[in-house]
Design goal:
Elements lengths: L9 E4 L5 H12 L3 E4 L4 H13 L3 E4 L7 H15 L4 E4 L17 H29 L2 E6 L2 H5 L6 H21 L4 E8 L12 H10 L8 H11 L11 E4 L20
């Protein structure tokens, strides 16, 4: 990995108890940043912290629901009280698959609220509390997590997810205009299909279908996302602001099986 030299920097990564967020936290710590690891459960946050420490890095667990105003403020304050600064914020937290794959007329209001609260409200709350701390120092890097579905309209059954992730894009572009003169960049990554636990219960035929339709012939990895996050968090990315960068192998639209039907074998 290139030397992005994040020594002395302090980062918060939400949703870092597994998958993409964990890979991002590990990568930022490997570049020298002290990382506050947020996850919904204390156990998963602590597991990531222990992995970082085992590799010689610095990390603290900061568990809690990102949709909670008290949690978001508390994590930012934890960074400031322990390290006296906050340089990097990675908004990565997401909600589970149990709240997706329902057409709009069948989708529960609770499923809509849970996805939007986690992905959009959580991103806003952490930005809300982080920006003043960054502005006071005249420096900051905010990296939000959107999705390829926000770029292409998604597929059947995920209108809540696609809407929330599109909102993250709007938040990113608008906030970038507010904070650029304060030395704070705000960008978003838009992952495609990334090989995480999220897909562990999906039929192999469905995953084969996805791989066959991607120009790279594979799913992405959490490390693919982490490498981009490290770059956006670095001094080298200082003039990239308000950008949305796909991590999808070059394909944003898929001919996917409709909701409720079995995925065919890929050809």
């Amino acid at each position: 990995m290139p030397d992005y030299d994040l020594k002395g920097r302090v980062a918060i990564v939400t949703g870092a108890g597994r998958g993409i967020g964990r890979a991002e936290a590990l990568a930022l710590a490997a570049e020298g940043a002290a990382v506050l690891v947020n996850s919904r459960t204390a156990e998963s946050a602590q597991e990531t912290v222990e992995r970082i420490r085992a590799a010689g890095g610095e990390a603290l667990a900061a568990p809690g629901d990102v949709a909670s105003e008290e949690v978001a403020n508390g994590v930012v304050q934890q960074a400031l009280q322990r390290y006296g600064r906050l340089d990097v914020l990675v908004n990565n937290a997401g909600a589970g698959a149990e709240f997706m794959n329902q057409r709009v007329g069948e989708m529960s209001i609770a499923a809509w609220d849970r996805i939007c609260e986690t992905h959009l409200r959580g991103t806003f709350l952490f930005c809300h509390f982080a920006v003043p701390a960054m502005r006071a120092r005249g420096y900051g890097r905010i990296i939000n997590t959107s999705s390829m579905h926000a770029l292409g309209g998604g597929r059947e059954g995920i209108v809540n997810y696609t809407t929330a992730k599109a909102g993250v894009l709007g938040l990113t572009r608008s906030l970038a205009k507010e904070t650029g003169r304060n030395g704070i960049t705000v960008n978003a990554i838009a992952p495609g299909f990334i090989e995480t636990d999220f897909f562990s219960t999906y039929p192999q035929a469905f995953l084969a279908q996805i791989r066959s339709q991607n120009p790279m012939g594979r799913l992405g990895t959490p490390e693919d996302c982490a490498a981009l996050v490290c770059f956006l968090a670095s001094r080298q990315a200082g003039f990239i602001n308000g950008a949305v960068l796909p991590v999808d192998g070059g394909r944003r639209e898929y001919a996917l099986t409709p909701v409720g039907q079995a995925a065919p074998e890929a050809v």
